[in-house]
Every structure is written in structure tokens, then in C-alpha cells.
Amino acid sequence: MVRGLAIKLIGKKKRKEIKKENIKRIIIDGGRIGDIVVKTPMLEALAKLNSDVKIDISIVKGARDLVENIPYINEIIEDQSKPTRNKIIKGYRELKGALKNRKKYDLYFDFTNNNRFIHTLALKLMAPKYLIGRYRLEKFGIKKDELTLFDSYIDVKDDAHAVDINMDYLKPLGLHKENKKYKLYLGENETKYKNYFENHKINIIVNHKASSEPRSLTLEQLEELSLKLIKLNKDIVVYLISIPSEYEILKDLVDKIDEKNIKLLPKTNGIGAAAGLLKYSDMLVSVDTGIIHVASAYNIPIVGIYPLTENSAKLFEPKTERYEIVRGTKNGYTIEGVSLEKVAENVKKILEERIYDKRCVV
User: Fold this and answer.
1) What letters, b where the CB count within 10 A reaches 16 and e where it falls short, cover 187-197?
2) pTM score over 0.85
3) Within a domain: 180
4) CB-based contacts of 203: which residues, under 8 Å, 6+ apart?
5) Which residue range(s) make up the domain with 39?
């Protein structure tokens, strides 16, 4: 009861009618790699808001490659702090960031829907001219649209894809019907790897690593899957992709497997180079992580390995024209129990279809 009253108190202000001509500076929480890719249609639409608009974007460490070449990004705010689950530290960082940006922006989008006191206080302290948010979870006696801190609320459907949710945030601005296609700007990496792969081969990139171990394949599973894939067709070449810190681990694995059609992609210094390689491949087999969205930007056929959790595949399913999803079999946010045989079968299924175009780069 006390918490609800406190949130209601700080969640009040005089609601304003949003006027596009008054919006000169916007900040977007870009987040991680996958989040950034699915927000690219939103960013491009916002760039058309008016001739004076400037868009700043906040990102996690390591994602700069995906935004530094976007022509309509004004400032990149890269979070250098170490991830933490400590609520006190997270709350302190949130309030500190809000004070740093106090009254600096004309428009801010709140992508959460939870009524947390610290978060609501941070929004109040930040004090953007206009604030657009989702309907709140009804708890602590607070109705979904009761906080007048928000100038406009967005209704998010349970089965909506992330890109559609992002574009719905633009409804108060009349920009929600703009193109929803992902668009990446890779700079020097755009064509750097154009001739890297052999044109007469079927070049399949395999990514086993997600942001958490329960959603990642083990090295043993990676080896088993790679061997299954090269047995499907003599022209298939499997390329393992690695984060820089695990490059030597995968190099040892490839040396151990000792198959000419199982190779390791070159060590990259960031997601930009990895995206440049992926752009010219023929297929991606990957666990549920940001690289799936990078492949979607280039219409690469995808076989995705997702947790059993229903919301995961709905919210972040691939947006490429041709894809298949294989799920784990254990409840929770894990791919435990996934059938590698089924993964290989779906790769074969895509390759055998007439719709499959060996070079799907657009």
C-alpha cells in the first residue's frame, strides 16, 4: 500500500499533448546487439520526424559497431559499467543516469511496464518534455494508465514481435506505418568480406553461444551438430563463429575435429566484422541471440534454436523470408533437450526447397 502511494505520488505531472514540431532531441535505449537491430526501423522512422531532430542512443559495451555508422545518430552513449544483479547498484546507476540527462531530451520511450518505485523516480528526475510508455502492470493498487507522468500509453499485445512493439511506440507521432525492415550500416565492413566464401559451396555459419549458458550449445553439441551438417551435402562448409574471448577454444575444437569442411571464421574485433561475414554467407544456424537479427537484416535463411518458453520465439523470431525454429524440451529459458537431429533436418529441408536461393544477400 505504501509503495503504491509513493509511486502514484511521483508518477503525477500535468500531461502534455505531444507536438512533433517541439521535438528536437530524442534518446533511445538501444541496449544489446539484438535489441539494436530490431530497433533500426524505429530509428529510421524517427529520423523523419522533422528536419531538426537529433537522436541519441544508449548501448551496452561492445555494440558500437552497429550504430557508429548510422547517419542520423547524433550521440552514442556506451555503458562501460559491469553488468550486475545487485538491485541497489542497479538503482543507483539508474538514478545517476536520470540526473545526468535531466531535462536534456524532448522525447523518451519507456519500454518497461513494471511499476517500480526507483524506475518511476528516475523517469520523474529525467523529466523529458514528452514521455511515451506501455500500459503498466496493475499492482500496488495502480491502474494501467493512472500515472500521468506518461503523456501517451501504448497497448502491447502478448504475441507481438519486438519490431512491431517498437513501431507501435511511434503511433502518437504518426510514424508507426513506416518500413519495418531491419537496416544495418557497417562502414568498412559492408563489403570487406564479399569474396571470403567460395561461391560453389554452401557456406553455413554456426553460432553456439548465447548470452547465458542455459541457452547455449555445449562444445560437444557444437561438434556433433557440425558433423551432422557436413554429412547432409558434400558441398556444405560449416564455419564456426566465435566471440573474441573464446576464439582459441573453438580453434582447438576445429583442430580436434580435423574435417576440411568444418572451419573457424577469422577472429573479429567486434560485431561489425561478424555482421560483414554473415552478410555473405548462405545460411545461419544459431541459438537465440542477436546474430539471428543480423542475419534477418540480410535475408539469410536461418535455423534458430530457441528455448521452450513460448514468448521467446514470438518476441524475437527471425524476420528473414525463410527460417525454421527448433526448441528445447525443458520448461524455462533454456534449450536443454534440443534435438540436433531435428536441427540438421531443418537445414536439409531449406536446402531442398525450390525457394532456397544460395545467395540471399539483399
Assistant:
1) eebeebbeeeb
2) yes
3) no
4) 197, 237, 239, 281, 282, 283
5) 2-173
pLDDT over 90, % of the chain:
81
Q: Verify that 142 and 290 share a domain, yes or no.
A: no
**pLDDT tens-digit series, residues 104-162:** 999 999 999 989 999 999 999 999 999 999 999 998 899 999 999 999 999 998 889 99
For 41: left if phi > 0, alpha if psi spans -120 to 50, otherwise beta; the answer is alpha
Domain end point (choices 173, 205, 240): 173
How far is the C-alpha of 283 from the C-alpha of 261, rounded, in Å? Answer: 15
CB 147 within 8 A of CB 137: no
Signed CA dihedral, 216, 342, 276, 292: sign only: negative
Same domain, 257 and 293: yes
The dihedrals phi and psi of 312, each to the nearest 5 degrees, come to -60, -50
CA 70 to chain centre: 16
Domain tally, the chain = 2
* Residue 127 domain flag: yes
Indicate if 16 and 160 belong to the same structural domain: yes
